[in-house]
Amino acid sequence: MQLKKYKFKYLLSTALLSFHFVLGYSQKNYPEETPKQELRYENKEYISSIKSVQLYPLEKEAQLPIIQLNTDDQLILSFDDLRADHRDVYMSLEYCDADWQPSRVSQLDYAEGYNEDRVVEINASISTVYPYTHYEASFPNEYLKPKIAGNYLLKVYEDADEEKLLLTRKFYVLKDIMNVQASVEPSPNVSNRASHQKVNLRLSMASITVQNPHRDLSVQVMQNKREDLTISVDEPSKIDPSELVYKLPNTLDFKGNNEFLFADLRSFKMGSEDIKSISRDTGIHINLQEDEVRIGQKYASTYDENGNFYIRNMDYNDDNLEGDYAEVTFSLKAPPLAEGTIHVIGAFNNFSADSDSQLEYKEDEGFWKTDLFLKQGLYDYDYVLKKPDGQVETDAFSGSYFETGNTYQVLIYYKRPGTYWDELIGYQEVGINNKNN
Fold first, then answer.
1. DSSP H or E segment with residue 5
2. CA–CA–CA angle 252, 404, 199 (5° rounding)
3. Do residues 224 and 306 touch, judged by C-beta distance below 8 A?
4. Are 135 and 328 in contact (CB under 8 A)?
5. How far is C-alpha 28 from the geometric centre of its chain's CA atoms?
6. Which of 58-62, 354-358, 432-436 has the lowest mean pLDDT?
7. Please, are residues 313 and 322 in contact by the beta-carbon 8 Å criterion?
8. Per 3-state DSSP, what percentage of the chain is helix, strand, and coil (rounded to 5)?
9. Domains 2-174 and 261-393 share a fold
10. How far apart are CA 7 and CA 159, in angstroms?
11. What is the pLDDT of residues 226-238, one digit of tens each?
């Protein structure tokens, strides 16, 4: 099991860290070499030791990673490596189109400087049961700076070798020249009125002239910053010289889903009402309170963080370096499935319904369970059903309600005539139930 392996390496890892940090020497014959990986254009950790990845605007921890072009805006990247040694870690950017596919734009056209920067803020964890190395960096800077607006993939890798990938993260650069007004209302479809949320848009054309909106504009809307819950729309319901309106009844109609479940893991000493038990032997194990299927229940207004997670620590002073990890058991009381699999998802695992997030049915207990390795903090999560065809039902165990407090991120891309890249020219976030930030 991974946890025992990390514990077994504790003394060796601590000795390596001391050696590296004191001498300023980067060891190349690591106990675990980073394998070469195939690049994926998605938010992804490429090796299992990379944990607690966060990318957000400076002082806006809960926001989409978006910055305005040619401003002092900064993005903060942080993550832990449970191999707990000192690696030479680098970052670079790649420009993508509106659908997150590789672009034909040359690096010379989208990036200033070298388009590579080394991560230099590297610190060892302090007196934790599971040792790790914490990496942190900020950009844009003189070495890593976008030149045009649009979608960018941040690539983080080892030894200046882009095939030795550790993680990738998507972020956005905005050239704010189109005013976006967004609103949320119940679905106009009668059968969806109690369960869906309809997003309507008005785009001001005061600062830009778009000759052919069908061809030149791409409009995308995400629910709670989730790429798995993104809808694109190409056809405006109204076009005039000053305004575009997107209000067709069958477009941008989202399931409201339900409020996220919540786990307070800030203290491994005192616990919280979300924790059923804490045990320590070779490591730390936490059992969360069992969850039940919420289908058929009346909507209950509870505050959540729209799927986000935050690294926080009530036991010690430093969230990043003194926060420990634990094996956390999630349990859902539900009958066996005829087909499909159950997964626990949240921003902490990129909302990925994959093998790492899959629960197993414990027949003797009547529960679906899985263990996840999580750092001290606050975590939103939910359970979803993945069908044999790969489709994911987000409301299979929670239900879906119009009243659910979601936020929606609206992204407007423009391909200027004669060019071959998609500029991000408009952005707006709109919320429901007072969750608008």
1. helix 2-8
2. 20
3. yes
4. no
5. 31
6. 432-436
7. yes
8. 10, 45, 50
9. yes
10. 26
11. 999 999 998 899 9
3-state SS, residue 347: helix
Q: What is the largest CA-CA distance in the chain?
A: 69
Residue with tokens 């195939």: 38
pLDDT given for residue 322 in this prediction = 97
Enumerate residues 6+ apart whose C-beta is below 8 A from 129: 7, 280, 283, 284, 324, 325
- Around Cβ 349, how many Cβ atoms within 10 Å? 20
Find out whether 416 and 422 touch, Cβ atoms under 8 Å: no
Q: How far apart are CA 198 and CA 189, in angstroms?
A: 9
SS3 6: helix
Please state which of the four CATH numbers 2.60.40, 3.15.10, 2.60.120, 2.30.29 is assigned to the domain occupying 261-393: 2.60.40
CA distance 249 to 292: 34
Separation of alpha carbons 70 and 98, rounded Å: 20
Q: Which single residue is written with the structure tokens 């935050």?
A: 310
Task: Write down the domain spans for the chain.
Answer: 2-174, 180-257+413-431, 261-393
Q: Is 0.85 topped by the overall pTM? A: yes
User: Rounded distance, CA 158 to CA 88, Å?
Assistant: 6
Q: Residue 16, SS3? A: helix
At the fourth CATH level, the homologous superfamily of domain 2-174 is: Immunoglobulins (2.60.40.10)
| Residues 83, 121 contacting (CB under 8 angstroms) | no
Give me the helices (H) in 274-325, please: 319-322
Other CB atoms within 10 Å distance of the CB of residue 341: 20
Report whether pLDDT(189) > 90.
yes
The structure tokens listed for 62 are 């809960």
The answer to whether the peptide bond before residue 140 is cis (omega within 30 degrees of 0) is: yes
The per-residue DSSP string of 142-203 comes to SSSEE-SSEEEEEEEEETTEEEEEEEEEEEEEE---S-EEEEEEE-SSGGGTTTEEEEEEEE
- The Cβ-side half-sphere exposure at 409, using a 13 Å CA radius, reads 17
Bigger pLDDT: 433 or 165? 165
